[in-house]
């Protein structure tokens, strides 16, 4: 019987080594041992994908590698998430989430969405290359608590500011908590454009959002 930590290491390595077909069986074996599926997502699959992201940024991996690694991660998630007890009935909060206009890289956005769904948030996924006006319109239409935007391209970062500008122009900025993230984004940039928060990764995003939500409700 392998320990949880041994499974986590194997899952991370399978993601890194692009073993997109074998990983589903490993996750089934993990579940058969009675281990927690949510821990495996955080400590195994996402840990591996974070390393893939580092290798990609350092140009050791190419786009083709990134896509296969993400397939491996999602194949594992598909097995594990069926055994996760979500808290949708609680509807902790509602968020609209998407990749900002001009960018089609959505792996990070999808990870964040998954983590928030597990935490009990209602997530309205706008997809990728989302027009700035749509973020605002959908947030209003869905009575959202959060607007969450991401990008991996420096050339599209200004579009995040445009969303906040529209909120200010309509006089509804205070109705929403605005969170941003992505490779070129930083906490200082979030402050510069008037966003409420920046999160470095999917794991931290939920913690940051919960803290902001608690403060808003005070």
TrEMBL record:
Q: Which UniProt keywords apply?
A: Cobalt, Metal-binding
**What is the similarity comment for this entry?**
Belongs to the methylamine corrinoid protein family.
| SMART domains recorded | B12-binding_2
Q: Which InterPro entries match?
A: Cbl-bd_cap (IPR003759), Cobalamin-bd (IPR006158), Cobalamin-bd_sf (IPR036724), Met_Synthase/Corrinoid (IPR050554), Meth_synthase_dom (IPR036594)
Annotated B12-binding N-terminal domain residues? 1-92
PROSITE patterns (UniProt xref): B12_BINDING, B12_BINDING_NTER
Q: Which residues form the B12-binding domain?
A: 92-218
Select a single GO molecular function from the record's annotations and give it. Answer: cobalamin binding
SUPFAM superfamilies (alphabetical): Cobalamin (vitamin B12)-binding domain, Methionine synthase domain
Annotated protein name in UniProt: Cobalamin-binding protein
Can you list the GO cellular component terms from the UniProt entry? cytosol
Per the record, the GO terms for biological process are: homocysteine metabolic process; tetrahydrofolate metabolic process
């Amino acid at each position: 019987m392998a320990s949880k930590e041994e499974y986590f290491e194997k899952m991370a390595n399978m993601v890194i080594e692009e073993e997109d077909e074998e990983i589903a069986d490993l996750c089934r074996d993990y579940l058969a041992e009675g281990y927690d599926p949510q821990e495996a997502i955080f400590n195994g699959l996402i840990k591996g994908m974070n390393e893939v992201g580092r290798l990609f940024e350092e140009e050791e991996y190419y786009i083709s590698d990134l896509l296969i690694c993400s397939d491996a991660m999602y194949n594992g998630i598909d097995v594990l998430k069926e055994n996760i007890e979500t808290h949708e009935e609680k509807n902790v909060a509602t968020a609209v989430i998407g990749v900002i206009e001009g960018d089609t890289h959505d792996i990070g956005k999808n990870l964040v969405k998954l983590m928030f769904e597990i935490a009990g948030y209602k997530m309205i996924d706008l997809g990728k290359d989302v027009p700035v006006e749509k973020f605002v319109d959908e947030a209003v239409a869905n009575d959202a608590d959060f607007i969450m935007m991401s990008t991996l391209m420096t050339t599209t970062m200004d579009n995040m500011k445009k969303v906040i500008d529209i909120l200010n122009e309509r006089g509804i900025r205070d109705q929403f908590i605005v969170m941003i993230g992505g490779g070129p984004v930083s906490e200082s940039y979030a402050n510069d454009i008037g966003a409420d928060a920046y999160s470095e990764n999917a794991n931290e995003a939920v913690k940051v959002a919960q803290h902001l939500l608690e403060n808003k409700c005070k």
